TrEMBL record, chain A:
Membrane-spanning ranges: 45-64
Source organism per UniProt: Dyadobacter beijingensis
Keywords: Membrane, Transmembrane, Transmembrane helix
Protein's name in the database: Outer membrane protein beta-barrel domain-containing protein
Biased composition (Polar residues): 101-114
Chain residue ranges for the region called Disordered: 93-119
UniProtKB/TrEMBL annotation, chain B:
Organism domain of life: Bacteria
SUPFAM superfamilies associated with the record: Sigma2 domain of RNA polymerase sigma factors (SSF88946), Sigma3 and sigma4 domains of RNA polymerase sigma factors (SSF88659)
Positions of the RNA polymerase sigma-70 region domain: 30-97
CDD domains: Sigma70_r4
InterPro entries noted in UniProt: RNA_pol_sigma-70-like, RNA_pol_sigma-70_dom, RNA_pol_sigma70_r2, RNA_pol_sigma70_r4_t2, RNA_pol_sigma_r2, RNA_pol_sigma_r3/r4-like, WH-like_DNA-bd_sf
Protein name: ECF RNA polymerase sigma factor SigW
Domain RNA polymerase sigma factor 70 region 4 type: 128-177
The keyword Transcription regulation is annotated on this UniProt entry: yes
Family label: Belongs to the sigma-70 factor family. ECF subfamily.
One Pfam family cited in the UniProt record for this chain: Sigma70_r4_2
Gene: sigW
Keywords (A to Z) from UniProt: DNA-binding, Sigma factor, Transcription, Transcription regulation
Length: 459, 194
């Protein structure tokens, strides 16, 4: 049974609910901004974006590497093939067959291949280097060569190369090829000198042999109809006895800066940077804040770091950056207390009091940047460089972003043929201002420090 | 509760799901949807406007940070309201509980004499009534709000305020009587005829 208390409570509830059920008030303006600063930042878009960028950089880097490796291989094949064919056509040698059958259609190759006869020994040392180095390339070439039953040997797949096109392959007779290779297979290894290798070898050969080798190499660069080749009489090249069994020195790659711009280079950098700031106080809040105090010129509190990784091609660098730094300063919020103090001259000054606030904000920025690097210098082991770039980065601790303009200078040193180490001063400046979290100020950072990095590229 | 609808999010569920993905635009729409009503609730539970602002902001921070745990997006209205009320309770637990436990509990005696009080309250300006509720001690104000306006039972109030049903009922009665006393002090008494 309901008592009078219950009835009264019911009536009271009805009237109060009626009064307050739809009661609304407006919150303070700016409440949402303050709430946002304390709410977990949205990460989905940012993570997808940077993840996509990372995947894009990696894939593009791999594709570019494969593409240019393929080009390089194709160019190498064409070079080797042309060299081999011209050598087949031009270099006189001795037919190894006892019958001494030296018909005009017989190409003379033993001198180059060094497989048959005494005459071949003359250039054995010279060709050994080329043979070793061309073994892989020759194998590829052989795969592309067809032995014609009627006429001779042709190379295919070289029309893409202008160099190869300008030097049409000359036919040799199938039977001659078989004889030239002696006990090898009919489509055996063709060995020839590449132009640069010829230079290398001639540099290490004294006197007439060097001259002859150079002549062969030069003449190999010119075209000659088969008819003329057929007319050339074979003669045995005189090889001095002391040259027999010469062991060519092994090619030893030197340590030097590789600046092949067409290659994709991989970059890794680390920087230590001191942060500075430009703080803008809006005019409407100028009377509410006072006595700003900033860190000293050099302090460990303002030291930050930056790590970068990316790719470079033709001097254009695309990199992902991760950096951390802190923004520290203090200021006073002016209150309504005033302090009247006398000075040395007996005059009184009114000083408005304030409540001191400390700002200590940590930035963890993830960014994507593009820059252009220029290198100059003549030393094979070191170069100077300058890099100018732009970067967009996002603070992982808040939903704010910054854009940067950066400049790096320094010197690169060769660590190996594949790797260069670079070091030098680095500076970056943000032309974009970000708003403070718990205050109305605008923050514009700039950072100065030292950057060191490694650059990996295939020579 | 009747709230305005957003053009972009065609249902409350889609709005909540977007907020669960931390979509800033959805958070803004969500905030706009609830801000006025929740500010009103905060004003009822808080002693001052400044404290109401603090409670409001704390509540929305909790809401946005925990909305991912909301299993039924359709129940967002009541979830938001409950979160705001719980935040207000926690706010005063945190700041005034110690003080209250050691303070003297005012012994308020008041007897129901007439239903005129209800009629008088009905005719009062909502602002004046709110001011009167705000003047109540924290514990009474909370219980009055919860039981008379937000419809919580004494059992629920006891659970939320960590007290027994009987204590919750007793607190309510004392709070109600104190409110009536305040009405009397304001010169609004049952024998006045409007």
């Amino acid at each position: 049974m309901r008592t009078s208390e219950d009835k009264f409570n019911e009536a009271l509830r009805d009237v109060l609910k009626r009064k307050f059920d739809d009661y609304e008030e407006q919150p303070k303006p700016g409440a949402l901004d303050r709430i946002r600063t304390r709410v977990k930042p949205a990460r989905t878009f940012r993570y997808w974006w940077f993840s996509g960028a990372l995947v894009l950089i990696t894939i593009s880097g791999l594709l570019l590497t494969r593409h240019f490796d393929g080009e390089h291989l194709a160019a190498g094949e064409a070079k080797n093939t042309v060299g081999a064919d011209v050598a087949v056509a031009k270099v006189p040698s001795v037919d190894a067959e006892p019958s001494g059958k030296k018909s005009s259609t017989q190409p003379v190759n033993e001198e180059i291949s060094g497989t048959n006869g005494n005459a071949a020994e003359a250039n054995a040392g010279v060709t050994a280097v080329a043979a070793r180095r061309n073994a892989q390339g020759a194998a590829v070439v052989l795969n592309r060569m067809k032995v014609s039953k009627e006429k001779g040997v042709f190379a295919t797949g070289l029309r893409d190369s202008p160099e190869a096109e300008s030097r049409q392959l000359h036919a040799v007779s199938h039977t001659t090829v078989s004889r030239w290779n002696g006990n090898r297979r009919a489509n055996g290894v063709q060995q020839a000198l590449l132009p640069d290798e010829t230079d290398y070898v001639t540099a290490h050969l004294p006197g007439t042999i060097a001259a002859e080798t150079a002549t062969h190499a030069d003449s190999a660069m010119t075209e000659m109809p088969l008819e003329e080749l057929d007319a050339i009489a074979l003669k045995e090249a005189p090889v001095p006895l002391h040259m027999r069994g010469v062991v060519a020195p092994r090619f030893k790659p030197v340590k030097r800066i590789v600046t092949n711009p067409a290659k994709v280079a991989w970059l890794v950098n680390a920087s230590v940077l001191h942060s500075y700031q430009i703080l803008t106080v809006p005019s409407f809040a100028a009377t509410d804040f006072q006595n700003f105090n900033f860190p000293t010129l050099f302090t460990s509190r303002s030291i930050g770091y930056k790590f970068s990784a990316g790719v470079e091609r033709r001097g254009i660098q695309l990199q992902l950056h991760y950096s951390g730094f802190r923004q520290t300063y203090s200021y006073e919020i002016a209150n309504n207390n005033y302090l009247v103090k006398p000075d040395d001259k007996g005059q009184y000054h009114t000083v408005r009091q304030g409540d001191r606030m400390e700002e200590n904000r940590r930035f963890s920025m993830l960014g994507l940047g593009i820059s252009r690097q220029l290198r100059w210098g003549h030393s094979p082991v070191s170069r100077f460089y300058a890099a100018l770039g732009a970067e967009y980065s996002h603070d992982l601790n808040s939903s704010q972003s910054l854009a940067w303009v950066n400049l790096g200078l320094g010197k690169q040193f060769a660590v190996s043929r594949h790797t260069a180490f670079s070091i030098g001063p680095y500076a970056e400046f943000s032309p974009v201002k970000v708003k403070g979290i718990a205050n109305p100020f605008y923050y514009q950072p700039y950072r100065v420090g030292i950057s060191a990095g490694l650059r990996f590229v295939r020579p | 509760m009747k709230f305005f609808r957003s053009n972009k999010y065609d249902s409350l569920a889609s709005l909540v799901k977007a907020c669960q993905k931390l979509d800033p635009r959805a958070q803004t729409v969500f905030y706009e949807r609830y801000k006025a009503r929740m500010t009103g609730i905060c004003r009822r539970y808080a002693k001052t406007v400044a404290e109401a602002d603090d409670i409001f902001q704390d509540a929305f921070v909790k809401i946005f940070n925990n909305i991912g745990n909301l299993q039924e997006p359709e129940a967002a209205d009541s979830w938001v309201k409950t979160t705001v009320i719980r935040t207000a309770i926690n706010y005063y637990n945190r700041t005034t509980r110690h003080e209250e436990m050691h303070g003297s509990i005012e012994n308020v005696e008041w007897h129901v004499e007439s239903d005129d009080y209800v009629r008088i309250i009905d005719q009062m300006n909502v602002r004046d009534l709110l001011d009167m509720i705000n003047e109540l001690p924290d514990k009474y104000r909370t219980v009055i709000n919860m039981h008379l306006i937000d419809g919580y039972t004494h059992t629920e109030i006891g659970e939320m305020l960590s007290m027994s049903d009987a204590t919750a009922r007793s607190q309510f009665m004392r709070g109600r009587n104190l409110l009536m006393k305040k009405l009397e002090k304001k010169g609004i008494v049952h024998h006045e005829n409007f």
